[in-house]
C-alpha cells in the first residue's frame, strides 16, 4: 500500500510500528517532529481499515493541501469546513454515507456540532468508521499558545464510538503538555510513540540585537528567492517589517490576527503556492503549515518558551534539505516577555510555570554549549555536539565573571534599582552625562569602575546576568534592572559567576545556494525543466507545486533520467496514480531537456 499509493519503498522511524498498531484497532499518542511524516501514520491505517477515517485538523489551508495531495495519489478524500457552501457540504456528507470516501477532514468546531455527531452515528451504522485522527493535539492544552476550546470536547468521540481506534499527533510537547493531552482526550491507555526531536538539517543561530533590521538583511541576503518566515511580537511590527522588506526587494507579506480573514487567506495561499515568498507574521501564522521547502525561520523578537521556539523553527526544512533558524534578541525582549507574564490574568501557578519556561529559553540563548544539545535536553533527549549551530562552529570563550557581575549588581543597587541598562553602563564607564550628574551618580563609588570593559561588552554582561536570574527587568519602571534574591551571594563573594566573553557582532555568514544535491550541469537542466513543468501543472490545477511532486522526486528524476514507465516505477514519491497521470509527460520532459 505504501509503494502503490504513496510511491515510497520504506517507512521512516517508527511509522511502520505506528501504522501496524493503529491498523489493529489500538489507540496511539504520537509525538514526532515537524517533517517527520506524521500524516502517513493515520492516512495509511485509514486505507487499510474498513470505513472512513475522520481527521480533526484545526486549519482550513492545511486540510485543503492534504486533501489535494491525497487526491493526487488516487485516494478518495474530502474536507468539511467553513470554506464550503452548504450545497458542497451536503454533497460530501452524502458521499461519506455512500462509503465513497476513505478520509474526511473536519475542523474541530464543526465536529462537535450535533449535525456532525449525527453523521458519525450514521457512518458507524453504515460504511463504518476506520479511525479518528486528532492532529495538532497540543491544542487541547489550556496553557498553550495554540489552545482551541473545541479540542476539550473531543473526548466525545471515544464516548460515542468506543470501538474506533484513535490517534492523537503533535510535533512538540513537554511532559506536562503530554500528560494534559492524555488526560483531556481520554488516552490514558494509549501507547505513546515518542520520536527523536532532533532536526539535524536545521542550523541554529542566535545573535544579540545590534541594529536588528541590518542584521536581518545580512541574514536574508543568502536566502534571496527562497521561502521563509520572519516572526515578530506585535501586529504593528509585522506590518512595518513586511513593508520595509518589500522596499528591500523581497516578496514579503504580512500576517496577523488583526488582518481581514480574506487577506490572511490570500497571503497564506500565496505563501503556499508561490516560490520565494517571505511571510512576516505573529504566532497567529504557522500551525499546521505543510510547506516542505521553507528554507529559513527568523525571529526578530524573543518567543515565549522553548516549545514555541521549537515549533516555530520546525516549520523550516520539512523536506529534509538544509534550513536555518536565526534569532536576534536583547534585554528589551526579556523585559517585554516578563511584563507579559506579570500582567496576565493567569493563576499564580501558571505564571510561575511561564516564568520557568522563559528562563529556560534565556538559558538556551546564552548557552556556551551546543544549541541543539540544550534544545534536546529540554525535551528529555540526550545528544552530543551537532557541529551545525553557531556555538559549535564558533565556540565562545568563558571567563570568571564574578568581579564584573559584582560591579554591575553594585551599580544597579547603588542607583536605587530604578534605571535601565544604558544608564548603568554610563555609570560603570564613568560617563558624566546630564542624567548621571542630575542624580549625583558621578559621586558613587561604582562610578567609572568598569572602564576596563567597553559598552558593548557591558551590555552582554548585563544580558547574561538577567538570563542567569541575578537581575530582573521591570517594564513598569521602563526596564529598570532590579536585583533578585539570587544576586545576594554573588555580591557577598560567596558565589562565583561564569560568563561568555561577548565579541563585537561580526558580519553574518552568507548562505550560498548550491545546486540541488550537486547535480551536474546536464542534470540541473533536466531538474529546472521538471520544475517548470511542475509549476505549470500546479497553476492549471490550483494546487501548491509540492502537491504535484516534491523536489526530492524531481532530483531523482533528473539524476536517473528514466526513459520508460518501468524506470519511473522505482522513483520514490511516484505512486500508481501519479505514474498513470504524469508518467508519459515526465518522460517527455526528460527527453526534451536531454535532446
TrEMBL record:
It holds the Pfam family DEAD. Coiled coil: none annotated. The keyword Zinc applies. Residues 520-595 form the HRDC domain. One of its GO terms (molecular function) is hydrolase activity. It catalyses: Couples ATP hydrolysis with the unwinding of duplex DNA by translocating in the 3'-5' direction. GO terms for biological process: DNA recombination; DNA repair; DNA replication; SOS response. Its EC number is 5.6.2.4. One of its GO terms (cellular component) is bacterial nucleoid. PROSITE patterns: HELICASE_ATP_BIND_1, HELICASE_CTER, HRDC. Its cofactor is Zn(2+); Mg(2+). Keywords: ATP-binding, DNA damage, DNA recombination, DNA repair, DNA-binding, Helicase, Hydrolase, Isomerase, Metal-binding, Nucleotide-binding, Zinc. It comes from the Bacteria. Residues 19-191 form the Helicase ATP-binding domain. The keyword Metal-binding applies. InterPro entries: DEAD/DEAH_box_helicase_dom, DNA_helicase_ATP-dep_RecQ, DNA_helicase_ATP-dep_RecQ_bac, Helicase_ATP-bd, Helicase_C-like, HRDC-like_sf, HRDC_dom, HRDC_dom_sf. Residues 212-359 form the Helicase C-terminal domain. Belongs to the helicase family. RecQ subfamily. This is DNA helicase RecQ. It comes from Parasulfuritortus cantonensis.
Amino acid at each position: 500500500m505504501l509503494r502503490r499509493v504513496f510511491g515510497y519503498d520504506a517507512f521512516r522511524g517508527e511509522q511502520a510500528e505506528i501504522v501496524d498498531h493503529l491498523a489493529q484497532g489500538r489507540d496511539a499518542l504520537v509525538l514526532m517532529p515537524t517533517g517527520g511524516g506524521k500524516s502517513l501514520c493515520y492516512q495509511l491505517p485509514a486505507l487499510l481499515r474498513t470505513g472512513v477515517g475522520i481527521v480533526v485538523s484545526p486549519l482550513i489551508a492545511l486540510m485543503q493541501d492534504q486533501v489535494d495531495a491525497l487526491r493526487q495519489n488516487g485516494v478518495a478524500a474530502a474536507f468539511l469546513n467553513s470554506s464550503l457552501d452548504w450545497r458542497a457540504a451536503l454533497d460530501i456528507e452524502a458521499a461519506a454515507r455512500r462509503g465513497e470516501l476513505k478520509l474526511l477532514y473536519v475542523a474541530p468546531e464543526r465536529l462537535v456540532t450535533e449535525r456532525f455527531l449525527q453523521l458519525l452515528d450514521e457512518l458507524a451504522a453504515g460504511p463504518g468508521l476506520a479511525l479518528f485522527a486528532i492532529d495538532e493535539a497540543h491544542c487541547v492544552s489550556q496553557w498553550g499558545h495554540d489552545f482551541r476550546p473545541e479540542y476539550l470536547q473531543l473526548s466525545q468521540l471515544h464516548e460515542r464510538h468506543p470501538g474506533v481506534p484513535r490517534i492523537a499527533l503533535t510535533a512538540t510537547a513537554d511532559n506536562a503538555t503530554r500528560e494534559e493531552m492524555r488526560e483531556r482526550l481520554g488516552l490514558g491507555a494509549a501507547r505513546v510513540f515518542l520520536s527523536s526531536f532532533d532536526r539535524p538539517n536545521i542550523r541554529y543561530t542566535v545573535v544579540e540585537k545590534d541594529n536588528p533590521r541590518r542584521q536581518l538583511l545580512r541574514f536574508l541576503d543568502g536566502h534571496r528567492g527562497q521561502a521563509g518566515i520572519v516572526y515578530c511580537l506585535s501586529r504593528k511590527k509585522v506590518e512595518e517589517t513586511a513593508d520595509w522588506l518589500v522596499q528591500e526587494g523581497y516578496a514579503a507579506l504580512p500576517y496577523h490576527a488583526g488582518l481581514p480573514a480574506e487577506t490572511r487567506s490570500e497571503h497564506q495561499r500565496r505563501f503556499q503556492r508561490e516560490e520565494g515568498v517571505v511571510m512576516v507574521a505573529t504566532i497567529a501564522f504557522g500551525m499546521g503549515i505543510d510547506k516542505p521547502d521553507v528554507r529559513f525561520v527568523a525571529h526578530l523578537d524573543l518567543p515565549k518558551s522553548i516549545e514555541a521556539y521549537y515549533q516555530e523553527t520546525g516549520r523550516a526544512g520539512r523536506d529534509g534539505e538544509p534550513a536555518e533558524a536565526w534569532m536576534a534578541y536583547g534585554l528589551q525582549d526579556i523585559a517585554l516577555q516578563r511584563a507579559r507574564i506579570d500582567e496576565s490574568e493567569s493563576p499564580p501557578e501558571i505564571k510561575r510555570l511561564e516564568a520557568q519556561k522563559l528562563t529556560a529559553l534565556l538559558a538556551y540563548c546564552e548557552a556556551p554549549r551546543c544549541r541543539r544539545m540544550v534544545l534536546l535536553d529540554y525535551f528529555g533527549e540526550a545528544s552530543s555536539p551537532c557541529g551545525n549551530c553557531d556555538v559549535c562552529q564558533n565556540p565562545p570563550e568563558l571567563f570568571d565573571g564574578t568581579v564584573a557581575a559584582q560591579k554591575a549588581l553594585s551599580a544597579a543597587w547603588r542607583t536605587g534599582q530604578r534605571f535601565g541598562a544604558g544608564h548603568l553602563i554610563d555609570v560603570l564607564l564613568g560617563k558624566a552625562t546630564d542624567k548621571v550628574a542630575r542624580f549625583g551618580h558621578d559621586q558613587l563609588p561604582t562610578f567609572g569602575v568598569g572602564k576596563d570593559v567597553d559598552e558593548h561588552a557591558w551590555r552582554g554582561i548585563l544580558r547574561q546576568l538577567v538570563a542567569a536570574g541575578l537581575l530582573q527587568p521591570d517594564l513598569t519602571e521602563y526596564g529598570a534592572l532590579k536585583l533578585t534574591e539570587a544576586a545576594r551571594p554573588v555580591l557577598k563573594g560567596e558565589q562565583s559567576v561564569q560568563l561568555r566573553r561577548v565579541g563585537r557582532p561580526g558580519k553574518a555568514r552568507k548562505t550560498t545556494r548550491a545546486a540541488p544535491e550537486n547535480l551536474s550541469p546536464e542534470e540541473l537542466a533536466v531538474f529546472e525543466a521538471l520544475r517548470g513543468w511542475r509549476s505549470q501543472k500546479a497553476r492549471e490545477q490550483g494546487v501548491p507545486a509540492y502537491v504535484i511532486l516534491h523536489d526530492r522526486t524531481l532530483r531523482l528524476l533528473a539524476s536517473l533520467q528514466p526513459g520508460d514507465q518501468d524506470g519511473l516505477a522505482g522513483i520514490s514519491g511516484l505512486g500508481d496514480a501519479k505514474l498513470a497521470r504524469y508518467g508519459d509527460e515526465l518522460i517527455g520532459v526528460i527527453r526534451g531537456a536531454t535532446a
